[in-house]
Amino acid sequence: MSNRFVTIARFNFATEPVFILLKMRLEQEGILYYAAEENTVGIDPLLSITLGGIRVQVEQANVIRALAILKTITTDTATDEVWNPGELEDILDEGVQATDVHTETDSKRDRFLYHIIMTVISLAIVLFFLLSLLNQNN
After folding, report:
1. Which of 18, 53, 91, 96 could share a disulfide with 10, CB 3.0–4.6 Å?
2. Greatest alpha-carbon span in the chain
3. Which alpha helices (DSSP H) does 1-138 contain, by range?
């Protein structure tokens, strides 16, 4: 059960102050977290909407501590994002949606597939340019 990760927050950009503070505080408290799609959104912020933003995920055993940290950060920074205590029951419920629970193996597989797809796209672009150069020479 310790390798089950639960999404506790979503952010549109990697530069959001609440996101940066949350990561720092989770590290300070020794809570293992995973920021799904952080690198992708950091490279291309326009993909944030398509990917559903950056999902901050923590181990299920640390959900309450992490949500308490998130609540103090959102209260301290006075943002529009308000933590809803009612969401805690949904998160801790055994019927958590599959999109919100990931294992470490799922994350590795997702990264591998992302790299394969990006490699295929890059090769297709290079092939397209090579073919266009050959057509110009003929």
Report:
1. 53
2. 68
3. 17-28, 38-43, 47-51, 63-77, 86-92, 104-137
Given CA atoms 88, 52, 36, 16 in this order, what sign does their dihedral have?
negative
**What's the CA gap between 126 and 18, in Å, rounded?**
40
Q: Return d(Cα 96, Cα 118) in angstroms, integer.
A: 30
Backbone phi, psi, residue 2, to 5°: -70, -20
SS (H, E, C) 23-46: HHHHHHCCCCEEEECHHHHHHCCC
What's the CA gap between 6 and 4, in Å, rounded?
Answer: 7
Give per-residue pLDDT as tens, 53-86.
Answer: 899 999 989 999 999 999 888 875 554 445 555 5
Considering the entire predicted model, what is its pTM?
Answer: 0.55
